[in-house]
Amino acid sequence: MHKFTSSALLALGLAGSAFAQEPLTLQQTIDRVVAHYPTLDAAQAEIEAARARTTQVASARLPQVGAGASYNYIAPRPYVEFSLPGFSSSFYETSSNVYQAGLNARQLLTDFGQTDAMIKLARNGEMSAADALEVARTQLAYAAIQSFYGVILLRESVNVSDDEIKALDEALRISNRKLSGGTATKFDVLTTQVRLSNAQNVKTDTQAALEKQEAQLRQLLGLGPEVTLALVGEFPSPGELPQLNAAIAAGLENRPEMKVARDAAHSADLQLDIAAKANRPVLAAAASGGVQDGQLPNLYENRGYINAGVSVSVPLFTGQRITGQRAEARAGQRAAAARVADLDRRIATEVSDAFADLRAAVARLQTADVLVDQSAEALALARSRYTNGVITNFELLDAQSAARNAALARLQARYNWTLARQSLARASGEPAKP
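Above: the chain's sequence. Below: its structure in token form.
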């Protein structure tokens, strides 16, 4: 596997037209993806919006202060007329032009838990937004892991194809030399050329797949197409299988999707609590003060005033609005509980499936290791027999091809085992890590 690292760095050094980039390990790749991907910025904005909603709801506990001014024109003006013996007169109760300016304030004294319940709901929304951010971060981290190892697999596959093409080029050279010497036929040369063309086609397809995989990884990393990817890493060595029951229990406890579902269930409980308190009284104090004219005894003098009091509001009949709110909240509570139960089953199934895939990947990897050893031994025997003139060049090429196919099969098996291990870790709610 160290061949991959050195060849990748050599390719980076030769790419004079591309921008240089520091080699990235898997952990550095994960850190960069989760630090800069736009989806996480959107999820972070949702958290800030949830905090703002909590601030809005909590503002009901604080005094509400406002300022106001008014102008009124009154015509005809009401007046009082009176008369005494030998004398009569009248006076106006208000002026034609009335001005008023002042401040007003209102303070909620208690609504018997209604505001407190709404604040709890808003704060639970903050927790739900934070858990949704963790879901997005986990998805991106595991996508980066899969893409990283995909690039490693395809680069190694290209190297194997290069080795096969080099061996076939040498075989073609030998066949042409033997044809010139009369010890081989044109059929030998054509057969070798066909094998070489097939090997070149396989490399072309593998190279195209590699370019697509690198483009996907660049997208996750936020790099342009002109940047040459330099990756440092190899497939990890297989370890012991975890306990299935422990993995399922960890998934039910730690999966961020389960946390989001439980947040939604708690929100449904809080909605029902809000609906249950919707018909409670509201006790508030209010005060206003300022200056105005149009008051007796001097209608045209600006005079200060103060008005203060306490009020209580009790819902008596709401047209079944509260009844509907409670029914809706109870239905939402049942739906949220059902979604938690459904996710519980799906997580258990996902963990079981990932465990089965990992167990099968271990078995396939062991078989691939045996196959590589057997094909290497067979190739050594074929070379010895070819040197002694016992077998033909085609039989040697078959042995070489079998050895390279075995190497590719082991690469694929190690890749599959790595992804299976990561799938089980993700299903179990483990943080993404190399």
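The first strand starts at residue 64 and ends at 73.
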